[in-house]
Structures
1.
Amino acid sequence: MNTVTKLKSDTHYDLVAMANELGRDFAARAEAADATDSFVADNYAALKASGLVEAGVPVELGGGGADIDELAQMLRTMAHHCSSTALAFAMHTHQVAIPAWRWKHQKVAAVEPLLKRVAAEKIVLLSSGGSDWVAGSGKAERVEGGFKITARKIFSSATPAGSLLMTTAVLEEQGEPPMVLHFGIPMTSPQVRIDPVWKAMGMRGTASHDIVIDGHVVPEAAVALKRKAGEWHPLFQTIATIAFPLIYGVYLGVAESARDLALALAKKRRPDRHVVDLVGQMDTELRAAEMAHSYMLSVVNRNAPSAETVNDVMIGRRLVADHAIRAVELAMEAAGGSGFYRAQGLERRFRDIQGARYHPMQNGQQSEYAGAMAMGLPVDKIF
């Protein structure tokens, strides 16, 4: 593993340069991780050594001070080299970026201890992702001093490297509405285990296994938030607004790398007008995905999460996914039969890009939310 120097411009890391420098090694390992469903463990060791784990922590709290635009570009660049590393790391990155944004823009002091731990200890935060969307998942039971948690958290990327699982459980008490509790659980807890079920079509190196929680007790003081189950909360508006431009930067990078591979293969073919047309369609679809992603980032930069920003980000998420997937489909066609060989790396991108379909809000919910917003109807229970 190469030693990567921390590159800085003023107070910020040069994240793109670092992602490219690290990415050379990531790319060399990507095919083997994909072929064997193996976690990209060496890449995570390199990310820790480089300082990228704490890149999104404010400088004042010991981190790199990178903003959302910089972090998104880092992940987009990383995805050119290894989709799985980029997507798994996006799950840590957004879990850092959200409290960092709240600390900077909302003056929320309660997030300082977590951010300082990320910077000082280089802990890796795990997200339980879609299994913990607005409705929450898992069971919380009140016990002396706290809550006993029983849950299975699916699609938890980078589980072997995780230090702290940022998750939820639903508390149901007589006479009270169901409440979702937010908290962190150390992965070293004896009541926490990884169920290695991740055998997937794409993003095979993310180790997005299930995490099983069987009786871990969360102290009441460690519950960061209680909110009504099954409806949007202002914190979730912040989460949705900030997280998805980061995550979908990865899919944009996957599509860009597929385009580059396809173009190199297409240039080896006889240059008939059909191949030229396919390349033109591919670049047009990719440009649309790039524009949609830029729009998502512009929404973040309003610094005012709300139902409206959720709508705008989710429209962008839909457009990035649709156009990026179509761009990679066209890349396969433009490359011709040689693109069908696994050794070219293009079919791996084709499989990896399919993951863009499955993050919240999927197409049905997104369309309903957008339609309700346009018609002035309630959106608090559409997710």
Note: The chain has ten helices and ten strands.
2.
Amino acid sequence: MLESIITFLTQWLGEDTGATLAYISNGKHLAWYASVRFTLITAVAGAGCAVLFGLLGAAMKRSSFLPFKLAGDFYTTIVRGIPDVLFIIFFPLAFEQAVEFLMSRVKCSPEAIAAATQWPPCDAAQWYLGTGHYLTMACISLGIVYGAFAANVIHGAMQAVPRGQLEAAAAYGFTPRQVFWRFQVRQMWIYALPGLSNVWMLLLKATSFLSLLQIPDIVLWADRLGSANYFPIKGLVHPDWRWKYYLVLFVFFILLTLLSECFFAILQARASRGIAIPEGGE
């Protein structure tokens, strides 16, 4: 089907255009286009994990139980200071090493462990990770890192809900649980969404680090396809074209940014429906 379309377009647009269309629709380029799914899956799943960790971190920061409050403050303070690229590399590697360590204690004999000159000590403890494993750990890593940012945003949004409205709800007979869920959490999203949109943008940009885990994402494929292509029989097929492929990535992320802005604008409008926000948040 694709070859028929290219042939038809070649007849109308000329041989040069047909050659270009054939080149950008070969197997490697189709794999590059398909690798967009890794970026989108990581962004969406990582954002879901970030919101989950953010809600948990904000709840711990608001807790009256001192150990929970200290743990929440530690999480939002320390994790935010760790470079995301370092965390994305560290977490999967540390998790893999920990799993192999536990497997070696179960599946490897004490003699094999004592005489081991490599890691893991025996083949039975080797954990072979695939793209799906690394993708899952990348999503969790991004969720942990950006969950710390989301926790601060959510915590600040909870504080921004007018206290007078909460007191009025309590005066009307609502229980503390009802006041929290029906009024404070309901209105919290109005103040949290602008900050969460910024967290989403940061997380979206961080998906470009997937190639560090050897996940064949759009950045890794752009580097492979754009590098100088040389065959001994044909000679130099094309010089270094990486800037062209990276330019395509620039446009791709700009389009995602514009779509994200529209999406958050819709969410903000829906969250604000039926709620009057006093000037100054008082």
Note: The longest strand covers residues 235-238.
3.
Amino acid sequence: MFRKRSCKLAENEKLLSVKCEDGYKLDVMLTIPEKTEKIVIYVNGSGPMTYRTMRQKPDGSLYSYHQFFADELTKRNILYCRYSTRGVTDGKKSPGFCNINEKDYKTYLPMNSVSDIECIIRYLHEKEGYSCPVYLMGWSEGTIISAIVASRNNVKVDGIFLAGYCNENLKDTFTWQMMGNSSITQYRRLFDYDKKGYICKADFEADKYNVRKAVFGDMTFEKLDKNGDGKLTAEDFAAPDYIKATFSAVEKGDDKWLAESNGVRLTSDWWKAHFALPANKNTLPGLDLPIHIFAGDFDSMTPQSQARDIERVFKEKGKTNLTVHYLENHDHDLNYTAFSHFGKVSEGMKELFDTIENMK
């Protein structure tokens, strides 16, 4: 069954409506190469996304987040599959350029996402007739969902590619982010020139990339250095009160506060469901399929140290099915903006695409 959309499809695109286990009709887009040798399903990160996921460049023009992946994979004879988050459709209002159906969006929950991926795989096999290998490419939250899909063995998954890898439970990861670690990781990329782990006043005043005004406005080093120890560290940007308020809103089911106060639109039920899930560090070691993790040293959302932690566990267990790709000067998105803003493919993205292409 096809669902019509006002946006015209390209000749190699196909829009499907996949019926999920609870009856929800999921919008799924395929970009199909001339010869399909394998399939990659993009497993969404957290928050509202669509099969196009429109974003805006600094010059005001719009682009589809997924088009980059579609172009790079199809030229390698790989079918690229992606889907819209439940309750989300393309919209015209920045910055998200999406519309949210509140009733349907409430069903956007991690285990529904797991079963939705399973339904997509079955559909591709049973309705579309594909028999080639299927791989999951999970980003951020998608690294959690991908691992669970693979662990359930309800459908055949031939391998998983994980970027922005989340090793810990979401509650611990969110706490790490909000205790200043996310902020200092981003700032260090701009000011910690010798990678010592903090920003000193000399770095701050040198402003090598001429970004201090844009990043900090008129704030002086002394005002930013809240603990007065002469260096900017995570402690100076920690927000324990915000963490407490977020967890309180989750517990109370205060979706209004969460929608108004969090940068990513997520419901209290989504948070609670994630808090109850096992961490990836407990799931991944039970898998025997090929696993590739792509970890940037400037990942401000899920630190590269988490990839090192799980790699150590695999080595201790004598398992050889995990490969970690450590990427210098790469962020959570593997420097995606190198393409979206400058038309260049980052080294991390090249390594991701080449790894997928060479997977047997």
Note: The chain is about 40% helix and 20% strand.
